[in-house]
Amino acid sequence: MKGKLVIFVVGLILGIVLTLVAKPYLLPLMPEALRGKAKATDGRVVAKRLQGDRLLLTVDASDGAVLATFTQKVPEIDLLVDDGDLVTLGLPGYEPFAENPPILAVRKKHIDETAPSKAPAAAAASEAGAGAAASPASEGAESGMGEQAQPEGPPPAMGEGAQQEGAPPPSL
After folding, report:
1. Which of 22, 50, 105, 166 fits a disulfide with 88 by CB distance 3.0 to 4.6 angstroms?
2. CATH code for the domain of 98
3. Beta-strand pair 54-61/39-51
4. Any domain includes 15
5. What pLDDT score does 43 carry?
6. Is the pLDDT confidence value at 129 over 60?
7. β-strand 39-51 against 86-91: which pairing, if any?
8. How far is 107 from 84, CA to CA, in rounded Å?
9. Is residue 109 part of a domain?
10. Which domain does 48 fall in, by range?
11. For residue range 66-124, what is the model confidence (pLDDT) as tens digits?
């Protein structure tokens, strides 16, 4: 009777200790049904700091701020994520401190912010380029140096094997 009680107590202690210690190592190996569902938490990276062999990201999420600490794949994450990027972290719920949370998605800030304004910027650049290209010809005409014919519109289409005069041969 006493031996069975000792085995029970030792088993109970081992079960509790191994559950606490082995959870971070065994959780990724478990099926998703046993792990529990991770909620996708979106937020903008407001601060990024590399401290030795770990990377700290402060993410401003809708639920609140999350300090994500990464100790695995530090150089890769450091290269991938920058300040201002939108990241999606896989967290079981809101956690203010997260150790090695899975990164589900990263959307770069320069792509998100400039995508709608690309067309007006390109139009303005082409107008500025067209004005700069036309000004030397008009200056030459005003100074009496003779007029140079400027072709308007796109260049004529060339057939296969045709080559413009003075143009380098096509590379293979």
Report:
1. 105
2. 2.40.50.140
3. antiparallel
4. no
5. 92
6. no
7. antiparallel
8. 9
9. yes
10. 37-113
11. 999 999 999 999 999 999 999 999 888 888 898 998 899 999 886 545 445 444 444 44
